[in-house]
Amino acid sequence: MEHHVKQPRWILHRTTRWHSLLHDAAIILRPRLSWRYLLVSTVVIYISYCFIRGSPLFASKLPAYTGQHEVGTIDLEIPLKQPRLISNTQFKDGTGPAFQVETVLFSLYYPAIKGAKAHKRHTWVPKPIALRAEGYAQAIHMNNFITRGIFTFGLWVVVGGIEIPAKVDVPILGTDDEKNHDAYPVMVFSHGTVASRTDYSNYCGELASRGYIVAALEHRDGSGPATNILSKQKKERKIFHFGESHLRSDPPMDEPQLKKEQLAFREAEIEETIAVLRRINAGEGPDVYKHNLRKEGHCLHNWGDRIDLNHLIIGGHSYGATGALQALKAGPNSTSIPAIGGVALDPGKSSGPLNHKVDVPLLVVHSDSWSAKYSLFEGRPHFDTVRDLVDSVLDRVGAGWFVTSLKTSHPSVTDAPLIEPLLLSWTTGASINVYEGLREYVKVTSEFFEYLKTGERKGILAEEITHPEYGRDNRTEDRKESMGKDITKYWQIHVAPPAE
Ligand SMILES: *[C@@H]1O[C@H](CO)[C@@H](O)[C@H](O)[C@H]1NC(C)=O
Ligand SMILES: *[C@@H]1O[C@H](CO)[C@@H](O)[C@H](O)[C@H]1NC(C)=O
């Protein structure tokens, strides 16, 4: 009894304060028809909806893969035995050489055994998020405590909750089955500018779910927003986007020279990735795991003879496509990059000159906007330069395709349209359903893998030229009638071998 009577004053205060707060809230929440009220309630309802569905705010989740296999993923960052100095260019701030490969970082995507339990998923923005945020702050030349905080929070709210739907570090398919020890064909994939190893996770994971291994690189050439180089002995080194003005060289750095050094750096990273894959395939998985600075890969001991390095493709998008073409210069007989095929998605334009000396089968896919938008490149229309490049490969090798994926835009093959479908279609003009668009990219890539393995031309690769120029249909009426709608709806074919 005593208790009730002698209530401390602060409780009393609090209750009345709460009462008046609730009263105010009731007034605020009373439905009415003002634009502000509608706006606020829409936002509140939307946030609650996302919260209940467990989906990230303002962005969509990444969809599950659609192929016949489950997908595993492993992040590997492996130090080189000796750092490789690519050029003498130094950072102006005195932090050392700008182009020295110390470690190579990539995500492996692969077919995984059914129903394996994963202990974690990778987030789509590689952790730590604060690193990426600092990269953006750096990009607008306002890298300070406050902007870093705001960007970190913003990233966390908008995309921080997005996970890549591949299972981390689960056994490769066939581990539990003595008879099924196939080796899977493999692609080393190189990203575009302002991207990282996770930006093409859907394309890579979809290929893995169809029985291919993809090693998606993260380049440390200053073209990405932010990346960190780990080391057992030293503090981690952060690399943010950099340009000519950050570099000191003799003669002073200009754009063409920067591209040249970046592409050489990327090529070295591709070589080192292949060297790691070779070690894993040779049964040195446990040793690779031991040296992995990202501490994943405890199942790699089961990977002996599981990577089919005789069917190695170099692939890339944008700057990465230009880099992939450059890496193919080594030729199929080289020991460092013994690729037997190349997949270049939107090569060239501002990403530097293209290597024309490709002596292996080549598939070049343009997005619609890449083909439609006229631009000069190497002194000629970009489209013509690319067509001649593929024509010359076709002449020498007998296998070259140049096709345009209709209604897509430059980022259509990245994860961006899956995560922000509306934003992307408004800003880039892609009108294709984003799932369909990506599925076509995956389909043509697996058809190319199949061609390299069996020599058989299927799907779009079985067709002849439909449009020698972008938009100029030269098919006969008969052919228009007989061609599958699933091809004409999505593709224009500019270069292809004559039908068999
Ligand atoms: C690769 O080596 C094989 C066998 O020695 C040879 O026939 C072929 O012409 C070489 N290819 C290239 C592109 O050099
Ligand atoms: C369409 O153009 C290609 C390339 O110039 C050519 O090889 C093909 O014969 C043409 N087809 C028709 C039906 O004219």
Task: Walk me through this protein's architecture.
Pfam families: PAF-AH_p_II (PF03403). One of its GO terms (molecular function) is 1-alkyl-2-acetylglycerophosphocholine esterase activity. This protein has 500 residues and is an alpha/beta fold. The chain is 38% helix and 19% strand. The strands form four sheets. Strands 4-1-3-6-5-10-11-12-15-16 form a ten-stranded mixed β-sheet, sandwiched between helices. A two-stranded antiparallel ribbon has the order 2-9. The protein has a two-stranded antiparallel ribbon with strand order 7-8. Strand 13 and strand 14 form a beta hairpin. Helix 4 crosses helix 5, helix 6 crosses helix 13 and helix 7 crosses helix 8. One 2-acetamido-2-deoxy-beta-D-glucopyranose (NAG) binds next to loops.
**How many β-strands, per DSSP?**
16
With helices defined by DSSP (H or I, 4 residues minimum), what is the helix count?
Answer: 15
Strand residue percentage: 15-25%
Q: Cofactors and ligands present?
A: 2-acetamido-2-deoxy-beta-D-glucopyranose
Low-confidence stretches: 1-5, 7-12
Mean pLDDT: 90
What is the secondary structure topology, with strand pairs?
Elements: H1 2-5, H2 9-29, H3 35-53, E1 70-85, E2 90-91, E3 100-112, H4 129-139, H5 145-158, E4 167-168, E5 184-190, H6 201-209, E6 213-218, E7 226-229, E8 237-240, E9 247-248, H7 255-291, E10 307-317, H8 319-327, E11 341-345, E12 362-367, H9 368-372, E13 376-377, E14 380-381, H10 382-397, E15 400-405, H11 416-419, H12 421-428, H13 434-454, H14 477-482, H15 485-488, E16 491-495
Parallel strand pairs: 1-4, 5-6, 5-10, 10-11, 11-12, 12-15
Antiparallel strand pairs: 1-3, 2-9, 3-6, 7-8, 13-14, 15-16
This protein binds 2-acetamido-2-deoxy-beta-D-glucopyranose (2 copies).
